[in-house]
Design goal:
Layout (H helix, E strand, L loop, with lengths): L12 H17 L4 H8 L5 H7 L7 H4 L1 H15 L3 H25 L8 E4 L25 H10 L2 H12 L11 H33 L2 E6 L2 E6 L8 E4 L8 E7 L5 E5 L1 H4 L4 E5 L2 H4 L12 E5 L11 E5 L6 E5 L4 E2 L4 E2 L4 E7 L5 H4 L10 H28 L5 H11 L7 H19 L7 E2 L11 E6 L6 E11 L4 E2 L4 H23 L11 H22 L4 E4 L9 H8 L6 E4 L3 H12 L3 E5 L3 E5 L5 E10 L7 E8 L5 E7 L1 H4 L9 H10 L3 E10 L1 H16 L4 H12 L4 E12 L3 H10 L3 E5 L4 H10 L8 E4 L6 H13 L3 E6 H10 L1 H10 L2 E5 L3 H15 L2 E6 L5 H6 L2 E5 L6 H5 L2 E3 L4 H41 L11 H7 L4 H5 L9 H6 L4 H5 L6 H25 L4 H23 L5 H18 L8 H4 L2 H28 L3 H6 L1
Amino acid sequence: MAEHIRLYPVRSAAAAAAANRKRAAYYNAAGPGPGAARHSRYQLEDESAHLDEMPLMMSEEGFENDESDYHTLPQARVTQRRSGLEWFVCGGWRLLCASCCDWLINICQRKKELKARTVWLGCPEKCEEKHPKNSIKNQKYNVFTFIPGVLYEQFKFFLNLYFLVVSCSQFVPALKIGYLYTYWAPLGFVLAVIIIREAVDEFRRFQRDKEVNAQLYSKLTVRGQVQVKSSDIQVGDLIIVEKNQRIPSDMVFLRTSEKAGSCFIRTDQLDGETDWKLKVAVSCTQRLPALGDLFSINAYVYAQKPQLDIHSFEGTFTREDSDPPIHESLSIENTLWASTVVASGTVIGVVIYTGKETRSVMNTSNPKNKVGLLDLELNQLTKALFLALVALSVVMVTLQGFVGPWYRNLFRFLLLFSYIIPISLRVNLDMGKAAYGWMIMKDENIPGTVVRTSTIPEELGRLVYLLTDKTGTLTRNEMVFKRLHLGTVSYGTDTMDEIQSHVASSYSQMHSQAAGNNASSPPPRKGPSSAPKVRKSVSSRIHEAVKAIALCHNVTPVYESWAGVTGETEVAEADRDFSDENRTYQASSPDEVALVQWTESVGLTLVSRDLASMQLKTPGGQILTFRILQMFPFTSESKRMGVIVRDESTAEITFYMKGADVAMSSIVQYNDWLEEECGNMAREGLRTLVVAKRSLTEEQYQDFESRYSQAKLSLHDRTLKVAAVVESLEREMELLCLTGVEDQLQADVRPTLEMLRNAGIKIWMLTGDKLETATCIAKSSHLVSRAQDVHIFKQVSSRGEAHLELNALRRRQDCALVISGDSLEVCLKYYEHEFVELACQCPAVVCCRCSPTQKARIVTLLQQHTGRRTCAIGDGGNDVSMIQAADCGIGIEGKEGKQASLAADFSITQFRHVGRLLVVHGRNSYKRSAALGQLVMHRGLVISTMQAVFSSVFYFASVPLYQGFLMVGYATVYTMFPVFSLVLDQDVKPEMALLYPELYKDLTKGRSLSFKTFLVWVLISVYQGGILMYGALLLFESEFVHVVAISFTALILTELLMVALTVRTWHWLMVVAEFLSLGCYVASLLFLNEYFDVAFITTVAFLWKVSAITVVSCLPLYVLKYLRRKLSPPSYCKLAS
């Protein structure tokens, strides 16, 4: 049906014209008829246009009736043919303005265009263009931008900007209403703390960068080797990198000290994969007799322009001084990317990209300053308070009748009521955040947790999306061989000893046969008895399967202890006899290492391997040598890998192949068990591989080799031709066995993921790993629950294919989505909004083959399209961009190094700690900050209400009610400790929060701090302020100073009682804070003679008047709270009871 849809991606005019000519020819050839007529009518239309007319639909009905789609086209064309003036009026002016702005921005910030380059070996001076310096810079500021940058970050918040304006106004004599220190001391304190904290962080970043940039490397010159700093390396330099040294810039691999002409590198800080990658030196330079000969040849490397993709590279190596000139094509296996580490031997490479143009830097995003959602909400509320402040001041001036210099009075009223927006709000919240960070780090249940960004602990309580890496985060990246299935019999971990005895017996039999043959005895004939035949068949099948697994792989044994022990390497290798205990295996996939380790455990050991041969050791100690004739590496398209080997002892040629069941089921001979057993193993969470073989005669192989060599040399459609030749071998292969390998999950991953799902958090897994592996781990970790369907998004490369696949996804209900990075890129290019909308409806999403930049882009898309808070968690250098892009980044200190944990806001040691971090600490931090913020605002609103009542009673005079130390003491020693003690409050015990993670769902709705709760606190403040002021005015007798004494004392008592009303769980420090504040106030009464009449405050009349006013202001609120608890208790109260 897809042929009739005619959906095509947007293409260049030339490509579209060529396609139109082909289609015109096709439809003309189709002959006359209604179909031909209809097609010819629109045959030269740009196909991409009507795709925009076609909505993503629930079903394919619109596709079936393709007539209707074509009829919409002429209308679309008509709407586009508008006259110039009509176009300008209907939105054209907006387009012109946008274009002009873009042009101006491009002129101001013109970025250098990245171009392909020709790099001459060892001649940086021959470079045609200037390339960036090879230095790493992670700092946010420099010497000149530090102070302006930090101040801008602080004063972009309305709250801080308001405080600055108010404080500056006190320098104007006509506006001064108090002491300067009452305004400048709190603001100066906050700014000093922030500047010191930023300076320390910036200095640490500077130290780290300096350390990396100062690393010394050997540079090869005509005069020999010279030491050069990493930051002084240039494009064209020949750099020597020793074993375990970091590669300083992107290079093409020219030579190695290893005889095989290849080396291993560790890429964990680039792509997050812990296995080693095999890299191959350019054969032309590897063959040169000596290192110095690199300067005697005239050669250059042509490299494509710098790009993001770390998995691909296209280039050529050309040597001009040979006859004829030598041309070698360069691919990803000839490159050494920066930030990777040499794992074996010494390598020499020519630098092709430096600094900002290296793959690792291009894949790292700049860290952003993260601001919590609670801070943004409080910023909104302070704007509302400011509007209330302006309105109140205008009302006062209006009631005053605009007499005299009214604008000065207006400004004085603004300053008098400025306590509506309390300056202590920022101080209290920042100190609270520091306290939460300290509590998280001191929690014994999550040891080793480090808070690196102390400004966003409340974010942990507001998360909706959790985006996690797979390798090393959900899994330990430790593979264990679990199952071998031969069709009729299956072997598990408990029956491996049987396999061992079968292998031993079959090899001893072969050894005795070989000995017999050598003694000129005739080969033994098979006996007629049937019982031994059955046993022999199982034994021989096991022998064949184990041999196939031991030969079909990309694994190299490495002998650490022999490296560098003696100068005579060859002698050491000969003497070693492969019995070294310190043998380790290296491969590009941990699955392969697990398989080879398993063959070693059952008696068949891989002892040596180079590019041309490999050697196996039998249980009897014999060495079998196999020559590698051809190698077909694994690709994500083919989903299989193969090898053709010749047994040196028998000269037999065998083609072995292993791969995913989807790829292998059509290649192997008919059988009735493979599909069922693959399903069984997958349900157990095992990663399956199907192993098969085919014996080749010498003639068959020679025929294949000639066709294969021809295909590899073709210039057009090389990949397709090579694949076609290889496929000619992949027919009717003998199915040997099915293997099952388990990737061990991190401790308690399943219960943690279940807890997070119950907490209403949607989990997305973003990994650079293969699709099958990712799907397998998603099932075994219960990221995708057993009952759920999995929708695997097909590989799409064009707009039309993406359109069809998205429609297919839309029809699936409640299924987990699995998509690869390439398909994701196509979907985001054409259908970004639709894709994100559909993906967000899925209970779980798995994105595989993701580059670091794609991971960060997915995070940003979720933030933009959903407006919800995101959290990213990872453990490798490839997760840094994602962690920095998320609202809250969590890094795990793992096998892949500390890069992720250093870049993260929170660093943990195990994935299971995420549950407690979010459900317990996230909840407490958010709830406490919400209560603290609202109580501090209430404190300012109450005193501002009292000031308003006082001014209105005394003829709208702009005179302060309380002056000097009373105002400073009110916001500090008299009320600070009890209010701040709310950072110890908790509504639910940690055990309860972990037992009922569903409570977390309420937090994401943001009900603890909203305009509704804010209005309730405003009403409480207005009521209490009115009662306190009017009560004091009613009850005072002779002197005005009594009004101040009565109202201020009642105010302090009311604030202490309001803290007690807000507290949900009492802590002994809260009680101490209450009595300490009361004690401080009572003690200070004796010294504040200028504000209070000491004789009056010691009388009984003073005590009963203060008590009466306090009871009237607080008792109704206590009654209301009690009734609400009884009639409409919150969910956590129901659980607690």
